[in-house]
Amino acid sequence: MWFIIIVVAVVALLVIYLITAYNGLIRRRNQIENAWSQIDVQLKRRHDLIPNLVETVKGYAAHERETLDAVITARNAAVAAPTPSTQAAAEGQLMGSLRQLFALGEAYPDLKANQNFLALQEELSATEGKVAYARQFYNDSVLEYNNKLQQFPTMYFAQMLKFERREYFETDEAARSVPTVEF
Q: Which of 22, 63, 123, 181 is the most exposed place for a label (fewest CB within 10 A)?
């Protein structure tokens, strides 16, 4: 009789653990999806601001076509990137080209004083802060999820249910380097 009670208790505890582990994995996976959505919202906001900024600059620095084309090309690549790693690489290229675009503002005093340019530049700067925060939240969520996938004994359960590691949103080396602008 006691043996049956102990077996039932152990099985019940195991079932409770499995349910808790599964729900924890689902909660963390959904948190990552939400965090990615927040990054996506901020990146879309940035991508929507860029054409306006380019149009403003065109009026003052029309002969800087190469820089303007590079910004638009980088923006289009960033919009089309399907995964966090390709998105991060595309965003790194976009940041480099935006730095060059802002450097044009320094080279053209009339542009630097233009209210539209200043407002768009400020809006992009604010968006960059939001993107940085969203990236940090996403990476923290990925860390928590990946840690859970690798912890004993959840790792066996996660493998059986095919939960997979997620990749971090990391910038590439091009985004980390300071661009050189030559006139």
A: 63
Q: What share of the chain is helix, strand, coil (3-state, %, to 5)?
A: 85, 0, 15
Best mean pLDDT range from 82-86, 105-109, 135-139:
135-139
Alpha carbon 149 to its chain centroid, in Å, reads 22
Q: How far separated are the first and last CA of the chain, in Å rounded?
A: 89
Structural domains present in the chain: 2-176 (1.20.1440.20)
Question: What one-letter code names the amino acid at 164?
Answer: E
Cis preceding-peptide flag for 153 (omega within 30 of 0)? yes
* Residues 6+ positions from 83 with CB-CB distance below 8 Å: 167
User: CA–CA separation, 2 vs 57, rounded Å?
Assistant: 82
Predicted confidence at residue 100, as pLDDT, reads 86
Q: What's residue 172's pLDDT?
A: 59
